[in-house]
Structure formats: C-alpha cells, structure tokens
C-alpha cells in the first residue's frame, strides 16, 4: 500500500472509531469508502508522484464519495498528528507540493 493509501486508511479508521464503531474495526460504510479510496489511489494517473487528493486536479472521486472522504479528512486531519505523527507530517509536506511540480 502506498503512503497516500495508508494515510487515507488511517484517517478513515480514526473517523469511524469516533462516529460509528467505537469498539474498533470499521463499519460497512467506511469499509466501503476505504476500498473505494484505495482503488482510486491505485488508478491515480499521477502515481507515486501524486499530490495529496485534496490538491489533485483530477478529482477522480465520485461526488458522493468525495463528500464522504472530505468529511473524514476534516475530522481526522487534525487528529492525525496525535495518532500517526509520521504519516501526518509527510502528508503535510506533500500537501504543500503543487500539482504542477510533480513531473520531476
Ligand atoms: Zn464508519
């Protein structure tokens, strides 16, 4: 799994744990969302050089999935620093990268 997929998976877990499945694990909706996000990331035309999804010019998510992932990120984004500092910092660094520089 690449870094973006791991970051998204970690965020969905944080969000679901807080909202749907306090006992741990994932509710079926979030399991769905995670599977969907993973498939989108796999097919991303930017590959390993991709910017984080919210900076991406392609917007490959379906509108309803995009809304769900945005809500997850809004909630889990700030909490990533506490739970997964390494992933969070690397995510922040990449989010400063603009789509136009990724060909390097
Ligand atoms: Zn959930």
UniProtKB/TrEMBL annotation:
Entry superkingdom: Bacteria
Please give the InterPro entries that the UniProt record associates with this protein: Uncharacterised_YgbA (IPR020483)
Q: What is this protein called?
A: Nitrous oxide-stimulated promoter
- What organism does the UniProt record list as the source? Pontiella desulfatans
Question: From which lineage does this chain's organism come?
Answer: Bacteria, Pseudomonadati, Kiritimatiellota, Kiritimatiellia, Kiritimatiellales
